[in-house]
Amino acid sequence: MSLTPHAGVTPVPEQPDPAADVPTKADLTPSEPTTPGLAASVLVTAQEPAAAVLAGNAAEAADRLLTRPTIGLGDVVPAPASVTPRPAANFVLPADAAVRVSADPAARDVAAQLAELLRPATGLPLPVTDLPTAPGALVLTLAATAPRGSTAVREWAEEEYRLDVDVDGVRITAGTANGLFHGVQTLRQLLPAAVESRTPVTERWVVPGGTIVDRPRFPYRGAMLDVARHFFTVDDVCRVIDHLARYKLNHLHLHLTDDQGWRIAVDSWPRLAAVGGSTGVGGGPGGWYTAADYRRIVGYAARRHVTVVPEVDLPGHTNAALVAYPELAPDKVAPPPYTGTEVGFSYVDPTDERTYDFVADVLGEVAALTPGPWLHIGGDEAFKVKGVAYTGFVERVQRIVTGLGRTVVGWHQIAPAGQVDGRVLQWWGTNGDDPTVAEAVRRGARLILSPGNHAYLDMKYAPDTPLGHDWAGLIDVHRAYHWEPTTHLADVPAEAVLGVEAPLWTESVTSLAEIEFLFFPRLPALAELAWSAPSTRSWTGFRERLAGQGPRWHAAGITYHPSPEIPWPRPADNVRIAGSPPPARQPRPRSVTSSHGQTKNT
Ligand code: TNX
């Protein structure tokens, strides 16, 4: 692997044996931008034609050396479907580079985002143009608008892109804007890690030559953020969306309601947020999103080709709603606000018609604010609503969702309820043998895989991890990476698997830095599982590629857990940038009570 980015340092030639001959800081002379043609202009003064040829060859070799990237074309997470390096075709971003893009609003916006990503670190103007004749070193083409006869005119898979890097430019081609967007994320990883700096860096912006053709394995690739146990601001959520987009995840599931807090304003039931939103785990002040806040999240996500999946957890996990509206409670008495971390004690009254008015109003308003097709209705751990009372409730709620023209998603406990068109079950068990889920799949349900013992990002990495739970076991990076979504559940066909989601429950998580600490480096592991074909995946290759992400997170000010399983570059190789955020710190330990059978002091 050749992943050792250095801000303000000339890329070093690849070493035949990096382990035996690691360049030291002293070898890496900080340089002014070098002029590749210089060696040639000295050498071509030789008179003999043979000498001129030799000189030309030497100049070319020198050029190649100087433009050699520190990153290989395949050093991308998630692993691309196909990678064809052309080492003679490395590209160096010139100071006058422009971004040229098809004249399509969605494509243009991807081009604008590419320029926004590159401008801070490169300090280059990078104008964006859709004039077909304009020069542009970075060219984004929507294949549908590509000229006839172009190699780009072909059938494109959903979200597929092609990235060609040549000496004179980078071309990203796709059939849709989301494909272009994924191509941009790949290009970002092919540039030196210093590109993540928010302030200008002296760097040679080399991109390794060759072609990547890439497409996702699963259409649903997601992460969940629990904003109910602890509330997170719109800005925090937007930053989480950036993290998803970086690794080609395309769904953000927001767990908006739970016992400890109701986080979305509902006009027709205003006390839900005003009263139910004012608490959180540990007794904090809570918070909630106004319709405008939520629209901002949804819009920010949409621009990054991420679909928001809102969850209103029913019929259990509803204490905050009952505090606000005691008429929904089985005994019609307001319970005290709840700030602990137990589960399974609360529920809305499934025998009262008013409950269904509430569900219809809430889901109607949430649907109206949400452009995506999904409405997640929870359904987990409603221990006090049993048998037909439970399935009858879920079936009515499912009909409300389909009546709104949306697709039902629910935790896998809703499996015994009747099938409705397109229904999706989110598996969070730890034992892949569940006949009720297999039967629901036979009746037409599809699956999102979030096995608690592989995909739950609130599980600790190791016994001494200062945050998180361990009821589903410890999840180190290898465990997050090493499972197969299509065979995880017994007796379900691979075609039923829509994708993979990594949930982050936040009983123990109180800040963005703590979210990031639990996300990184496991989120990219799950992203690779969801995006990359099994034939392109291997633990050995993944841990090497993942190691190269560390300096990027460092440059971007992202907190991460330096898992000992990963061969991170030496800390000295991290990109040090004046004015960049301080290096990631470990969150402080605190007591966490797990509601799933174990109490731990961490
Ligand atoms: C289980 S997974 C829950 C959540 C907890 C989580 C803690 C699921 C559907 N329910 O209520 O927050 O475990 O890990």
Can you walk through the features of this model?
The chain has helices at about 35-45, 50-65, 105-120, 175-190, 235-245, 270-275, 290-305, 320-325, 355-370, 385-405, 435-440, 450-455, 475-480, 510-520, 520-530, 540-545, 550-555, and strands spanning about 80-85, 90, 100, 130, 140, 160-165, 170-175, 205, 210-215, 220-225, 250-255, 255-260, 260, 305-315, 375-380, 405-410, 425, 445-450, 495-505, 590-595, 600. The strands form five sheets. It has an eight-stranded parallel β-barrel, surrounded by seven helices. It is elongated, with a radius of gyration of 26 Å. Helix 1 (about 35-45) runs antiparallel to helix 2 (about 50-65). It is built from 17 helices and 21 strands. With about 600 residues, it is α/β, with parallel strands linked by helices. Bound molecules: ligand TNX. Ligand TNX binds near residues 428, 469 and 505. Ligand TNX binds near residues 380 and 458.
Provide a concise account of the structure shown.
The chain is α/β, with parallel strands linked by helices and 602 residues long. It has 17 helices and 21 strands. It has helices at 37-43, 49-66, 105-122, 177-190, 234-246, 271-274, 291-303, 319-324, 353-369, 387-403, 435-442, 452-455, 477-481, 512-519, 522-531, 539-547, 550-556, and strands at 82-85, 91-92, 99-101, 128-129, 138-142, 161-166, 169-174, 206-207, 210-214, 220-226, 251-255, 257-258, 261-262, 307-314, 374-378, 407-411, 424-427, 446-449, 497-504, 591-593, 599-601.
